[in-house]
């Protein structure tokens, strides 16, 4: 199977599942998929990011070797929002290594402050929260941002309001134990 051609052929759950099954845990096939994700072609990158999400839902550790490249990809300015959303979803759900946590925390902050989708902001909350739980001294700073985000977007988005309240509650608990 040529993963690139398959990705560009059709956008469907069946195609996504076909590629996930084909890759399995094969590092060479995974590398081919990751080259598509990291591609400058927006449509290819978007489709491949969806497959990465499905793949890592089954085996989160597979993409650990690509963590830095993924972070560089989402920080680039010409990405499709789906790439950002899918990578943030992965990091929010499954975590990340120490070597990218500082950069990822800063990037999560930027997503929360910037003009990104509600879904990206919701995932960025949990990405940042993972770092704050490890480094509680960041809690006060993050709480200020979270209050601003909930105030600004909470009335328009039930997801931001709900997730924001949960994060703020966890932050209050961390701050009270400092």
UniProtKB/TrEMBL annotation:
Domain of life: Bacteria
Name by which UniProt lists this protein: HEAT repeat domain-containing protein
